[in-house]
What we know:
Layout: E1 12-14, E2 17-20, E3 23-24, H1 25-32, E4 37-40, H2 42-55, E5 60-65, H3 72-79, E6 84-87, H4 90-98, E7 106-108, H5 115-124, E8 127-130, H6 133-146, E9 151-157, E10 167-168, E11 178-179, H7 183-192, E12 196-201, E13 205-206, H8 211-232, E14 238-240, H9 258-270, E15 280-285, H10 287-290, E16 294-306, E17 309-314, E18 338-340, E19 350-355, E20 364-371, E21 379-382, E22 404-407
Parallel strand pairs: 4-22, 5-6, 5-15, 6-7, 7-8, 8-9, 9-11, 9-12, 12-14, 14-15, 17-19
Antiparallel strand pairs: 1-2, 2-3, 4-16, 10-13, 16-17, 16-21, 18-21, 19-20
Helix pairs in contact: 5-6, 7-8, 8-9
This protein binds pyridoxal-5'-phosphate (PLP).
Pfam family, one: Orn_Arg_deC_N
Cofactor: pyridoxal 5'-phosphate
Keywords: Pyridoxal phosphate
Amino acid sequence: MKPLGPVPNTFSDKNGILAIDDEDAEALVARAGRTPLFVYSRALIRTRVARLRAALPAEIALHYAVKANPYKPVLETLLEDVDGFDIASGGELDLVVAAGIDPRQVSFAGPGKRDDELFKAIGLGVTLNVESENEARRALRLAEAAGRPPRIAIRVNPEFDLKGSGMKMGGGAKPFGLDAERVPALVREVVAGGAEWRGFHIFAGSQALSAEHIIETQAQTLQLAARLAEQGGAGCPHLNLGGGFGIPYFPGDEPLDLERVGAALAERLAVRPAVLAETRMCLELGRYLVGEAGVYLTRIVDRKVSHGEVFLITDGGMHHQLAASGNFGTVVRRNYPVAIASRFGAPVEEEASVVGCLCTPLDRLADKAGLPRAEVGDLVAVFCAGAYGATASPMQFLGQGPAAELMV
Ligand SMILES: *Cc1c(COP(=O)(O)O)cnc(C)c1O
């Protein structure tokens, strides 16, 4: 038997069925009209934001990394709760505008921004986190045509990475940002070119659970930003410190000690270099805000035994849950938190593998897990489904189409 990831302790059962915000999973499926279904809890997102506000220094603004989950009701919820939104494409720009978000609260990163995307973003007053000299020059040129100065920050490729992170986005050769030593010259160039100078964006990695590693990276980030602010000669009005706060997906994962990160950051800010005295700072978080607030529900359509192993075959799968299937940036496949939602809290009775309906051996949601005995018609829940689910999975693969989504 292989262990399952930890089910977030924010969920309980109602008459033996998994409940999300006090509504049982069968009722939620009935409300949505079908499975597979992503359910997101507004209350859980709000609680998470409140915990962050309480733990972090008050001066730290919170930004949401839209790519984690661009579902409109999620954006609308966060619109009331966070201070800014970070996008990485023109498509995400359209989504934030449609959700009623003020483009002046939005910053736009991403290594391959096209002219049409830059032009539109400049026209709306979005801050561009430029990723190269070329991109900065294109932005300055396009801004002339748009008749308004571009708001430019420079994304820096730091010399360090976020240790222990699931996805490293800094340190060494990277397609993201500008190597630190080239930054000061570009600061002078964009300022001379008439840009509204916004500062630096330094994102070193994702999905870190160690407070110590995050604390170390934040200290390095502040140091690097101070040095570049001095060398560039234009200061640093805004500093995006990155994020990388992870959530526990796998057996043995422990939640991040948020309070420790907040306390260390407060200490660090108290002794910051003078050049950062007036700098407005933000963190950009994706999965930490929404990941644990989402549950993916899928129904068992077949139950079979092959060579003595039980397979529970569901109507969902990797086309909505690429990460849970182990095919999105993991080296060794480990089980996500998965449960039989219609028998939530029932004792373990057998070893079974939960698979999806796609005709590929990659489509596995839980491998040799200990579960209560489940039958055709039972509901399976995959937890930690609020981020990188619906839009980070190969939805068109095998013609299966999208899952339903519901905000409660
Ligand atoms: C993906 C990404 C994020 C969000 O990462 P999470 O792990 O979901 O918090 C934030 N910033 C940048 C630049 C990213 O590419």
